[in-house]
Specification:
By secondary structure, this protein is mainly alpha-helical. The chain has one domain: Orthogonal Bundle (Arp2/3 complex 21 kDa subunit ARPC3), CATH 1.10.1760. Helix content is about 65%, strand content about 0%. Helix 1 packs across helix 3, helix 2 runs parallel beside helix 4 and helix 3 packs antiparallel against helix 4. The relative contact order is 0.16.
């Protein structure tokens, strides 16, 4: 039973790694969905959903795995980016933030049964994504990447206004969806033996 549970956890984690990768590139075919060098993707949605569904520990492992396989050269990042060079990209902070975002989302909903904590956890995780990602972007442009003319800290946050409405709506949807999955699919059958909320 223990081995079966671990296999199922591994399968779910792998599924979310793939979903984050797919979400990273759904909008690649629409070039104008890039604002200030930031591609508007569904990465955050699936990263947060991973934390809500898998729990803090497994959610963090899943998003760490996603970041790792991208850094070793598998093109899973937005616009099919990959490799260690991504560490120096202004947008890498958003990828890095997925780990803490997923972990936080999972921890917030631990032992929670109502939908409200799920939505709050999702919005909190999205805020973490924005804070880490935007600050990384600002310092990257200021310290090692060529910044646009007249670039300021306020401009970095101004760029984030474009994806903000979409991310707020998706965060609420992720919370509702994760809660629904918990009270239906994840509370039945072979999923019951898993510790996905841990």
């Amino acid at each position: 039973m223990y081995r079966k549970g671990k296999t199922l956890e591994l399968t779910l984690a792998s599924m979310f790694v793939v979903l984050i990768a797919v979400g990273a590139n759904l909008t690649t075919i629409i070039p104008f969905l890039v604002v200030g060098g930031v591609p508007i993707t569904l990465q955050t949605f699936f990263a947060v959903l991973a934390g809500l569904v898998l729990g803090g520990r497994l959610g963090a492992i899943t998003t760490s795995t996603y970041a790792f396989i991208g850094l070793v050269g598998i093109p899973v990042f937005a616009q099919f980016g990959a490799g260690l060079g991504m560490l120096f990209k202004p947008t890498f902070g958003f990828i890095l933030s997925f780990i803490l975002a997923a972990y936080s989302a999972g921890k917030i909903v631990e032992n929670k049964n109502n939908v409200a904590p799920y939505i709050m956890a999702s919005l909190t995780a999205t805020a973490i994504n924005y804070c880490i990602g935007t600050n990384w972007m600002y310092f990257a442009y200021k310290l090692w990447y060529e910044a646009p003319e007249g670039f300021t800290y306020g401009m970095a946050w101004l760029w984030m206004l474009a994806p903000l409405p979409k991310d707020i709506i998706l965060a609420v949807f992720a919370g509702i969806m994760a809660h629904r999955l918990k009270v239906t699919v994840l509370s039945k059958g072979q999923f019951k033996s898993l510790h996905l909320g841990a």
